[in-house]
Amino acid sequence: MAEEELVSENSLRQVKIVLCGHSGSGKTNFSLRLMHNHFKEDTYPTVGASFMLKNISIDDIEFKIIMIDIAGDERYKSLVKMYNRDSSATVFMYDSTNELGVDGTLDLFKYVFSDNTPDKPIFVVGNKSDIPSNAVAVEKAQNFCQENGFKHFLSSAKTGENVENIVKEIMKVSLGVD
Ligand SMILES: Nc1nc2c(ncn2[C@@H]2O[C@H](COP(=O)(O)OP(=O)(O)OP(=O)(O)O)[C@@H](O)[C@H]2O)c(=O)[nH]1
Ligand SMILES: [Mg+2]
Protein backbone atom coordinates (compact mmCIF):
# COMPACT_ATOMS: atom_id res chain seq x y z
CA MET A 1 0.00 0.00 0.00
CA ALA A 2 1.34 3.45 -0.91
CA GLU A 3 2.39 5.63 2.01
CA GLU A 4 -0.30 8.28 1.31
CA GLU A 5 -3.02 5.58 1.30
CA LEU A 6 -1.71 4.18 4.57
CA VAL A 7 -1.68 7.63 6.17
CA SER A 8 -5.17 8.49 4.95
CA GLU A 9 -6.56 5.10 6.00
CA ASN A 10 -5.06 5.54 9.46
CA SER A 11 -6.36 9.08 9.84
CA LEU A 12 -9.87 7.92 8.86
CA ARG A 13 -9.80 5.59 11.83
CA GLN A 14 -8.44 8.11 14.25
CA VAL A 15 -10.48 10.47 16.42
CA LYS A 16 -8.72 13.34 18.13
CA ILE A 17 -10.76 14.62 21.07
CA VAL A 18 -9.87 17.84 22.88
CA LEU A 19 -11.06 17.81 26.49
CA CYS A 20 -11.19 21.25 28.09
CA GLY A 21 -13.09 23.15 30.76
CA HIS A 22 -12.58 24.84 34.10
CA SER A 23 -10.00 23.55 36.54
CA GLY A 24 -11.28 20.79 38.82
CA SER A 25 -14.17 19.73 36.57
CA GLY A 26 -12.64 16.26 36.34
CA LYS A 27 -11.07 16.14 32.87
CA THR A 28 -8.01 14.17 33.94
CA ASN A 29 -10.13 11.67 35.85
CA PHE A 30 -12.55 11.34 32.92
CA SER A 31 -9.55 10.43 30.73
CA LEU A 32 -8.15 8.10 33.39
CA ARG A 33 -11.50 6.33 33.68
CA LEU A 34 -11.75 5.91 29.94
CA MET A 35 -8.17 4.87 29.32
CA HIS A 36 -7.35 2.83 32.44
CA ASN A 37 -10.70 2.34 34.23
CA HIS A 38 -9.16 4.18 37.16
CA PHE A 39 -10.11 7.12 39.42
CA LYS A 40 -7.95 9.22 41.74
CA GLU A 41 -9.28 11.32 44.62
CA ASP A 42 -6.10 13.38 44.74
CA THR A 43 -5.06 14.25 41.19
CA TYR A 44 -2.80 17.26 40.80
CA PRO A 45 -3.94 20.04 38.47
CA THR A 46 -2.70 19.31 34.97
CA VAL A 47 0.21 21.36 33.69
CA GLY A 48 -0.20 22.22 30.01
CA ALA A 49 -1.71 19.32 28.11
CA SER A 50 -1.60 15.59 28.50
CA PHE A 51 -2.12 13.05 25.71
CA MET A 52 -3.63 9.59 25.99
CA LEU A 53 -4.20 6.96 23.33
CA LYS A 54 -6.67 4.10 23.27
CA ASN A 55 -8.20 1.78 20.71
CA ILE A 56 -11.99 1.47 20.89
CA SER A 57 -14.23 -0.73 18.75
CA ILE A 58 -17.49 0.49 17.29
CA ASP A 59 -19.55 -2.08 15.36
CA ASP A 60 -16.47 -4.33 15.33
CA ILE A 61 -14.29 -1.71 13.70
CA GLU A 62 -11.33 -0.55 15.71
CA PHE A 63 -10.66 3.17 16.03
CA LYS A 64 -7.84 5.00 17.72
CA ILE A 65 -8.72 7.78 20.14
CA ILE A 66 -6.23 10.50 20.92
CA MET A 67 -7.49 12.34 23.99
CA ILE A 68 -5.91 15.72 24.64
CA ASP A 69 -6.62 16.73 28.23
CA ILE A 70 -5.87 20.43 28.63
CA ALA A 71 -5.31 22.10 31.98
CA GLY A 72 -8.20 24.30 33.09
CA ASP A 73 -6.01 27.03 34.56
CA GLU A 74 -6.52 30.39 32.78
CA ARG A 75 -2.90 30.55 31.67
CA TYR A 76 -3.33 27.51 29.40
CA LYS A 77 -6.41 28.65 27.53
CA SER A 78 -4.42 29.48 24.38
CA LEU A 79 -3.51 25.77 24.23
CA VAL A 80 -7.22 24.95 23.92
CA LYS A 81 -7.49 27.27 20.94
CA MET A 82 -4.39 25.74 19.37
CA TYR A 83 -5.34 22.05 19.79
CA ASN A 84 -8.98 22.75 18.90
CA ARG A 85 -7.92 23.67 15.35
CA ASP A 86 -7.22 20.12 14.27
CA SER A 87 -9.40 18.14 16.67
CA SER A 88 -12.20 15.86 15.43
CA ALA A 89 -14.40 17.00 18.31
CA THR A 90 -14.09 19.21 21.36
CA VAL A 91 -15.58 18.50 24.78
CA PHE A 92 -16.28 21.38 27.16
CA MET A 93 -16.49 19.90 30.66
CA TYR A 94 -17.90 21.51 33.79
CA ASP A 95 -18.50 20.38 37.35
CA SER A 96 -22.26 19.73 37.54
CA THR A 97 -22.23 20.38 41.29
CA ASN A 98 -20.75 23.87 41.09
CA GLU A 99 -22.52 26.99 39.87
CA LEU A 100 -19.36 29.03 39.28
CA GLY A 101 -17.50 26.37 37.32
CA VAL A 102 -19.96 26.27 34.45
CA ASP A 103 -19.42 30.00 33.84
CA GLY A 104 -15.68 29.37 33.52
CA THR A 105 -16.27 26.64 30.95
CA LEU A 106 -18.76 28.71 28.92
CA ASP A 107 -16.32 31.66 28.98
CA LEU A 108 -13.64 29.33 27.64
CA PHE A 109 -15.96 28.37 24.78
CA LYS A 110 -16.46 32.06 23.94
CA TYR A 111 -12.70 32.62 23.98
CA VAL A 112 -11.95 29.60 21.75
CA PHE A 113 -14.60 30.63 19.24
CA SER A 114 -14.16 34.41 19.51
CA ASP A 115 -13.28 34.77 15.83
CA ASN A 116 -14.70 31.67 14.16
CA THR A 117 -17.74 29.45 14.55
CA PRO A 118 -17.25 25.76 15.42
CA ASP A 119 -16.52 23.60 12.37
CA LYS A 120 -16.59 20.33 14.31
CA PRO A 121 -18.88 18.59 16.79
CA ILE A 122 -18.98 20.25 20.21
CA PHE A 123 -20.11 18.41 23.33
CA VAL A 124 -20.79 19.79 26.79
CA VAL A 125 -20.36 17.37 29.68
CA GLY A 126 -21.37 17.99 33.29
CA ASN A 127 -19.13 15.71 35.33
CA LYS A 128 -19.49 14.44 38.96
CA SER A 129 -23.02 13.05 38.51
CA ASP A 130 -22.36 10.80 41.53
CA ILE A 131 -22.95 13.95 43.68
CA PRO A 132 -26.32 15.78 43.68
CA SER A 133 -26.13 18.34 40.90
CA ASN A 134 -26.47 22.11 41.11
CA ALA A 135 -29.70 22.79 39.20
CA VAL A 136 -28.60 26.28 38.10
CA ALA A 137 -25.31 25.00 36.68
CA VAL A 138 -26.94 22.18 34.73
CA GLU A 139 -29.74 24.42 33.44
CA LYS A 140 -27.22 26.99 32.22
CA ALA A 141 -25.28 24.33 30.34
CA GLN A 142 -28.45 22.78 28.88
CA ASN A 143 -29.76 26.15 27.69
CA PHE A 144 -26.40 26.95 26.13
CA CYS A 145 -26.49 23.62 24.26
CA GLN A 146 -30.07 24.14 23.13
CA GLU A 147 -29.27 27.61 21.76
CA ASN A 148 -26.22 26.34 19.88
CA GLY A 149 -27.38 22.88 18.82
CA PHE A 150 -24.76 21.03 20.91
CA LYS A 151 -25.23 17.78 22.80
CA HIS A 152 -25.22 17.84 26.59
CA PHE A 153 -24.35 14.87 28.81
CA LEU A 154 -23.77 14.11 32.47
CA SER A 155 -20.99 11.75 33.58
CA SER A 156 -19.16 10.52 36.63
CA ALA A 157 -15.47 9.81 36.33
CA LYS A 158 -15.72 8.43 39.87
CA THR A 159 -18.26 5.67 39.17
CA GLY A 160 -17.61 5.50 35.42
CA GLU A 161 -21.26 6.34 34.69
CA ASN A 162 -21.72 7.36 31.05
CA VAL A 163 -17.99 7.84 30.35
CA GLU A 164 -17.65 5.22 27.62
CA ASN A 165 -21.12 5.98 26.20
CA ILE A 166 -20.22 9.64 25.79
CA VAL A 167 -16.94 8.85 24.08
CA LYS A 168 -18.60 6.36 21.73
CA GLU A 169 -21.24 8.96 20.86
CA ILE A 170 -18.53 11.54 20.16
CA MET A 171 -16.74 9.05 17.94
CA LYS A 172 -19.88 8.15 16.02
CA VAL A 173 -20.76 11.79 15.39
CA SER A 174 -17.16 12.67 14.45
CA LEU A 175 -16.89 9.73 12.07
CA GLY A 176 -20.39 10.21 10.65
CA VAL A 177 -21.42 6.67 11.72
CA ASP A 178 -24.94 6.07 13.04
N1 LIG B 1 -17.12 12.97 43.15
C1 LIG B 1 -16.41 13.12 42.02
N2 LIG B 1 -15.20 13.70 42.07
C2 LIG B 1 -14.52 13.82 40.89
C3 LIG B 1 -15.02 13.35 39.66
N3 LIG B 1 -14.11 13.62 38.69
C4 LIG B 1 -13.09 14.24 39.29
N4 LIG B 1 -13.32 14.36 40.64
C5 LIG B 1 -12.44 14.98 41.64
O1 LIG B 1 -12.31 16.36 41.32
C6 LIG B 1 -10.98 16.80 41.54
C7 LIG B 1 -10.40 17.39 40.26
O2 LIG B 1 -10.32 16.37 39.29
P1 LIG B 1 -9.32 16.45 38.03
O3 LIG B 1 -9.61 15.28 37.16
O4 LIG B 1 -7.92 16.62 38.46
O5 LIG B 1 -9.83 17.82 37.38
P2 LIG B 1 -9.26 18.54 36.05
O6 LIG B 1 -10.45 19.04 35.32
O7 LIG B 1 -8.34 17.66 35.32
O8 LIG B 1 -8.47 19.79 36.67
P3 LIG B 1 -7.26 20.65 35.97
O9 LIG B 1 -6.21 19.70 35.56
O10 LIG B 1 -6.82 21.58 37.05
O11 LIG B 1 -7.85 21.41 34.83
C8 LIG B 1 -10.19 15.57 42.08
O12 LIG B 1 -10.19 15.62 43.49
C9 LIG B 1 -11.01 14.39 41.59
O13 LIG B 1 -10.90 13.27 42.42
C10 LIG B 1 -16.31 12.72 39.65
O14 LIG B 1 -16.85 12.27 38.63
N5 LIG B 1 -16.96 12.63 40.87
MG1 LIG C 1 -6.36 17.81 34.89
Automatic annotation (TrEMBL):
PANTHER family: PTHR47978. The keyword Nucleotide-binding applies. Keywords: Nucleotide-binding. Coiled coil: none annotated. One of its GO terms (molecular function) is GTPase activity. This is Uncharacterized protein. NCBIfam families: small_GTP (TIGR00231). The keyword Oxidoreductase does not apply. InterPro entries: P-loop_NTPase, Small_GTP-bd, Small_GTPase. It comes from Stentor coeruleus. Pfam families: Ras.
